[in-house]
Amino acid sequence: MAVNRLPLIAGNWKMNLDHLQAIAFTQKLAWTLRDANHDYSTTEVALFPPFTDLRSIQNLIEGDKFSLAYGGQDLSMHDTGAFTGEISGGFLRALGSKYVIIGHSERRQFHAETDEVVRSKVEAALRHNLIPIICVGETEADLAQHGPSAVPVSQLSAALSGIAASEIVIAYEPVWAIGTGKAATEEQAQQVCSALRIALTEVWGVDSGESTRILYGGSVKSGNISSFMRQPDVDGALVGGASLDVAEFSSICRFLKHVV
Ligand code: PGA
């Protein structure tokens, strides 16, 4: 964690919590963080609910002036038109979204999203003034065959190819660590996040390299967040399962209280 990059704790709810559950959860989370005197200027907190929850979340957050950011878990590469079932970046932006997750391994695996699709979605997000959270990560087989950094770095290069320097967030999520309870070690996370920062610097220059936040994701819990956040190139976390538990997620958001 570097002092000049605002840490970001992002909760990816995946296909969990309908809009009523989302309202109750978000209210409880905001109150828990308020009671703990959470300072959002030292750690940003963002929620990634299903699309159908976004309007309710927007109303709640704007109405009660909560300092939580939010966004979509995916977006269409198109802006509008005959694309049944898809959601455009413009729609996400119109609901007050700040971020959008792109290229999560579950999208790559279950929806056959290629590096080229991911790249088009990054372009679409930037067109609509959304900050893309670009997910990269290797499978267990990739790790055995290519070592730790090669696949994530090549996914990042492909996602940024032909795109001008912009504000993005990168999430390093080893596929073998997602939802398995088997997180990467802090050394593994640091090694890959550092390689990603070097790759980004080569493409977009030193300023982008220094200012871009790189998150670690994969079985992050309140018990291991501080070890990741002590690493110089890890600037936050993308949290799946543990983001569905208010006590656990708020404790992750308050990692500064337990980082020594
Ligand atoms: P997990 O998921 O925290 O449940 O491992 C992380 C993610 O998929 O973003």
Walk me through what this model shows:
With 260 residues, the chain is α/β, with parallel strands linked by helices. It has one domain (8-257): Alpha-Beta Barrel (TIM Barrel), CATH 3.20.20.70. 42% of the residues lie in helices and 14% in strands. The chain has 11 helices and 8 strands. It has helices at residues 19-35, 54-63, 89-94, 105-110, 115-127, 140-146, 150-160, 186-204, 206-211, 225-229, 246-253, and strands at residues 8-12, 44-48, 69-72, 99-102, 131-136, 169-172, 213-217, 236-239. It has an 8-stranded parallel beta barrel, surrounded by 5 helices. Helix 1 (19-35) links the parallel strand 1 (8-12) and strand 2 (44-48). The radius of gyration is 17 Å and the shape is globular. The chain starts with 7 loop residues before the first strand and ends in a 7-residue tail after the last helix. 2-phosphoglycolic acid binds at residues 12, 173, 178-179, 217-220, 238-242. 2-phosphoglycolic acid (PGA) is lined by residues 12, 173, 178-179, 217-220, 238-242.
